[in-house]
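To illustrate this point, we now present one chain and its tokenised fold:
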Amino acid sequence: MKNPYKLAFLALATFFVGCSSDSDGGSSSGTCESDIAWFQTGKYEKFKITQFGFDAGTMKLSFGECNGDGLLSTMEFRNTAGAVTGTVDNLFWQDGAFLVNDANVDGIDFHKIYKKNAALNDTWTETDEDGAIITHTVVDTDSLITVPAGTFHCKVYLREKSDIANVSHIFWNDEIGQVMEDAEFMKLELMEYN
């Protein structure tokens, strides 16, 4: 069985996305300036990870200081006993309407994971190094969902990749950030945030 924490990182890292029919696959690093409410130094989100219906621990994403190109971030993974099992450092920045993540996941250096003021049917694509196409589509703009952290109105992004069968539904709240991701075999649910 694959490492559930690596799967959670891949799902979360590829979740933060972009803009209508934007096919450039990313951008160079940006700055630390942002008008996205939840994307600020000192903010964090902690998620419950469920894999194949079973508790697989937690992941906490913390936004740190600016390095001049964006906000340094840390994803800390803990197992079901609460022990730290791994950390992943990466960089986030705002590029126009998009939040960009420099995670080098799926052969793409930059992922557009969130779009400010996303509208129904907005679509953007990215191409990974082996030619697989990742398509993001806004499929709902007001979905009411309940997770351990509470009940939230969310926009729903559908993420599809041309070389895999499963899809992900990613739930974003414009004031809070990511609230949930359902990738069929794995689910991330917001537990706490600041």
